Amino acid sequence: MTPATDFAIESLHAATYAIFTGALAACSIESAFDRRLRFEGSVLHRLMPDGSGPASINLASYKRIFVIALGKAAGPMLDTLLDRMHRRKGLRGICCTNPLPKTRNWRFRYFEGGHPLPNEDSFEAARAALALLKRTRKDTLIFFLISGGGSAMFDLPLAPSIGLDDTMAFHQALLGSGAPINEINTLRKHFSAVKGGRLAIAAPDAMKVSLLLPDVPLRELDALSSGPTSPDHTTVGDVRDLIARYGLEMKFPASVRHFFERDDLPESPGNKGWRPPFFPRSSRAETAPTRRVTSAASMSGEADAFRDSVFEILLSSHDLVENARTLAAKAGYHVAVDNSCDDWDYAEAARYLLDRFHSLRRRHPRLCLISGGEVTVTLGPSPGAGGRNQQFALACALDLAKYPGEHLTVLSAGSDGIDGNSQAAGAIVDPTTTARARAFGFDPTVSMATFNACPLFTALGDAVVTGPTGHNLRDLRLLVADHA
User: Fold this and answer.
1) Who contacts 72 (Cβ-Cβ below 8 Å, separation ≥6)?
2) Cβ-count burial 184-200 (b if 16+ within 10 Å, e if not)
3) Where are the domains positioned within the chain?
4) 132 touches 202 (CB < 8 A)
5) What pLDDT, on a 0 to 100 scale, did the predictor assign at position 4?
6) 396 vs 307, more confident
7) Which end of the chain has fewer CB atoms < 10 Å from its terminal CB, N or C?
8) What's the CA gap between 176 and 190, in Å, rounded?
9) 370 CB-near residues (< 8 Å, 6+ apart)
10) CA gap 102, 99 in Å, rounded
11) 3-25+317-481: CATH number
């Protein structure tokens, strides 16, 4: 590679990276909040009501206001809400996130939940939230601030006999299954005491306002953090089908396997067949379920817990993609957007997007192909360090090696700053990546087969490292071509 070509590739790396970081920076939680909501005195106005709940809420009508914030963006979301609300007496709440914010409000309890696997704080945060919600009445208003990552950070098994180690093994089996996020979260919803609408059921009489930063497709919002406040439309039948489809039964620890095998496994709130679960809350070993008599009035009240609920989407993957489109166009690229490979296997998505990329750049030599959403991986028995974005990028690097001397880059990174079990958000590749990797002693095909891409990209200096961003708007893939 000549010095001129080397400089051109480095410049293209910088331009591609700038589109990613610029698009993420433009997704301001504060500005998104102000586009959707405004406080005037004691009244909260919804600026773009979508039909769920009233267009305005008078906070003075409520004696208590609670806030439960969970997920990777819980800290910034909580800070923004408190800043807009100013000081209000009786305000209390819980914040479960990772990492913990440097500055904390004394009115809140903070928990550093685990991710991608739950930890003891995940359990403690869920217990604290359920205890807080027991104090709610009709004169209580609850803000639920929900962002991606909450499925692991905030969890408590529905069956009290299942401990933390087995819960971690359950989550690990799901993450390595190759299933898309909505299917993974179907299983999580039926496993958890705080997912699949069960937080809403825990406060049946209160007014509930859920502010959402989805890391899931907008058509599947009840999958966000496994839908703690949303009615769940997945069923026990869906759960059993998924366990069989992905061969999960023997990958689960015995306690989890026995839980899902129960004949009385309860439907989630929101289903027609839903009934309150019959799992006694105790630390003793699980025994036969104890039936309890539930009156029709009580059943109706719990089933109607979603009636007094408001849902607002603050930001989504759409905003991230549109910001990238704007920046790429300003930089002079012909821009194309293709999100059709959302939830595809990483290798299939790479083949599809690369075919589209090479076809488009024949007509548009300066091209930026943008793709939002997530791809999936099916992990082997002993995966290395990396994640779906680095896996996708390495698959693209093997293709780009066929075009030596051409000015091409592919970047794939997570908006949360984390990719799988690594400290990188993703990686950026070009036609020289595989040759440079081999010069450093790496075999790219082996790294990909063993799901161990992070050491390769770290050695090359091509890992995308942002640190935790306070966001989780899914992933962004950029395929960029410039004049050779």
Assistant:
1) 97, 98, 115, 147, 148, 149, 153, 416, 468, 469, 470, 471, 472
2) bbbbbbbbbbbbbbbbb
3) 3-25+317-481, 29-313
4) no
5) 56
6) 396
7) C
8) 19
9) 321, 324, 325, 328, 335, 336, 337, 338, 476, 477, 478
10) 9
11) 3.40.1480.10
What does the block give as tokens for 205? 């009489």
> Residue 108 in contact with residue 81, Cβ under 8 Å?
no
Contact (Cβ atoms closer than 8 angstroms) between residue 467 and residue 400: no
pLDDT for the residue numbered 3: 62
In whole angstroms, give the CA distance from residue 311 to residue 50.
8
453: helix, strand or coil: helix
Q: pLDDT digits over 131-141, tens only?
A: 999 999 999 99
Per the listing, tokens 């890992």 go with: 463
Q: What is the mean pLDDT of residues 414-422?
A: 91
Kindly state the DSSP code that residue 267 receives in the 8-state scheme: P
Least confident of 13-22, 90-99, 154-163, 303-312: 303-312
**How far apart, in whole angstroms, are the C-alpha atoms of residue 117 and residue 139?**
36
Angle at 289 between CA 299 and CA 166, to 5 degrees: 105
| % the chain with pLDDT above 70 | 90
Give the pLDDT confidence of 322-341 residue by residue, as tens digits: 999 999 999 999 999 999 99
* Equal CATH topology for 3-25+317-481 and 29-313: no
Q: How buried is residue 399: exposed, middle or buried, by Cβ count under 10 Å (0-12/13-18/19+)?
A: buried
Query: What integer best gives the mean pLDDT of the chain?
Result: 89
Task: List, for residues 458-471, the tens digit of each pLDDT value.
Answer: 999 999 999 888 88
Lay out the sheet containing 56-58: strands in order across.
37-40, 43-46, 56-58
Cα dihedral across residues 189, 192, 195, 200: positive or negative: positive
Distance CA 161, CA 466 (A): 39
**Global pTM value:** 0.82
Asked whether the predicted pLDDT for residue 404 surpasses 90, the reply is yes
Write the single-letter amino acid at 396. Answer: C
